């Protein structure tokens, strides 16, 4: 599509301070479902982005994606329809769009050109697996991640060790990390099964999300974690979705979560 010249009735990007409804240009591109913020920053730096007909090179410039016209390489960026999907994240992938270390990311599983850019709702660390939500609806994502929403996240955790009753009691009571002094708690814990070779599996519910929370809790009680699988977020269960596969959420599932 040929580049559209700036017309006299196009207004330049605002250089005023933050106002309600404004975001940085890279954030606007992300909210519109075009690309990640990091990718947006690179596009701005390369001079590929126009706002209201004017090339912008300052990634911190704030605009209103609902009112301002944004073009990338001369093509107008239109707001994408909201998309909500669930992915069964495999172990070994990082939950990010751009990894400085060049590691494989969750987007290896989303090579579908019909999809707009989707951001993960929260994270699973590289060694963890299971249910991960992605969307281009930033308001829905924010509501779901807000601590006041108290949406439970359920995990199956495989550990090695003995004295399982003692482990359960100590985890259920909460722990305080020696290094940080931070208190870490679970909402509930129950024993799923034990095996002579596979160790034990616990089902654990969390209603808060701290970085590497489960691994830190078990480390504090001296227990080694082999696997962490997130099996549910609120009422949404991973079910029989194959590893590395994804599916769209139903309208009812979206409403129940957000």
Helix content: 10-25%
Main beta-sheet annotation: 9 strands, mixed
The secondary structure category is alpha+beta
Q: What's the rounded overall pLDDT mean?
A: 88
Q: H/E order of the elements?
A: EHHEEEEEEEEHEHEEEEHEEEH
**Individual helix count:** 6
**Cα separation of the termini:** 38 Å
Radius of gyration: 22 Å
Describe the protein's architecture and organization.
The chain has six helices and 17 strands. By secondary structure, the chain is of the alpha+beta class. The strands form four sheets. Strands 7, 8, 9, 10, 13, 14, 15, 16 and 17 form a nine-stranded mixed sheet that branches. A four-stranded antiparallel sheet has the order 3-2-5-6, with no helix packed on it. A two-stranded antiparallel sheet has the order 1-4. The chain is elongated and about 65 Å long.
What is the fold's blueprint, element by element?
Layout: E1 23-24, H1 25-31, H2 37-45, E2 49-51, E3 54-55, E4 62-63, E5 70-72, E6 75-76, E7 84-89, E8 119-120, E9 129-135, H3 138-145, E10 153-160, H4 164-173, E11 175-176, E12 183-184, E13 188-195, E14 199-206, H5 213-220, E15 224-233, E16 236-237, E17 246-248, H6 251-257
Parallel strand pairs: 9-15
Antiparallel strand pairs: 1-4, 2-3, 2-5, 5-6, 7-9, 7-17, 8-9, 10-14, 10-15, 11-12, 13-14, 15-16
Helix pairs in contact: 1-2
Task: State the main characteristics.
nine-stranded mixed beta sheet; elongated; alpha+beta; disordered N terminus; about 260 residues; four-stranded antiparallel beta sheet
């Amino acid at each position: 599509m040929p580049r559209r010249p700036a017309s006299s009735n196009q207004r330049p990007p605002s250089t005023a301070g933050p106002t309600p409804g404004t975001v940085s240009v890279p954030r606007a591109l992300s909210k519109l479902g075009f690309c990640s913020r990091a990718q947006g920053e690179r596009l701005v730096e390369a001079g590929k982005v126009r706002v209201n007909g004017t090339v912008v090179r300052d990634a911190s410039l704030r605009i209103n994606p609902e009112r301002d016209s944004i073009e990338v390489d001369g093509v107008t960026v239109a707001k994408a329809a909201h998309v909500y999907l669930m992915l069964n994240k495999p172990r070994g992938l990082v939950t990010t769009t751009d990894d400085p270390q060049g590691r494989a990311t969750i987007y290896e599983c989303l090579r579908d050109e019909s999809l707009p850019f989707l951001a993960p709702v929260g994270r699973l660390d590289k060694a963890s697996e299971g249910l991960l939500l992605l969307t281009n609806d930033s308001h829905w994502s924010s509501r779901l991640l807000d601590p006041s929403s108290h949406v439970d996240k359920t995990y199956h955790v495989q550990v090695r060790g003995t004295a399982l009753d003692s482990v359960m009691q100590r985890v259920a009571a909460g722990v305080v990390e020696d290094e940080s002094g931070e208190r870490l708690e679970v909402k509930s814990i129950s024993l799923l099964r034990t095996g002579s070779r596979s160790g034990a599996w616990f089902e654990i519910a969390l209603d808060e999300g701290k970085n590497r929370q489960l691994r830190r809790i078990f480390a504090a009680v001296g227990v080694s974690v082999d696997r962490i699988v997130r099996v549910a977020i609120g009422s949404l269960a991973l079910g029989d979705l194959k590893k590395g596969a994804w599916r769209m959420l139903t309208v009812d599932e979206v409403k129940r979560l957000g």
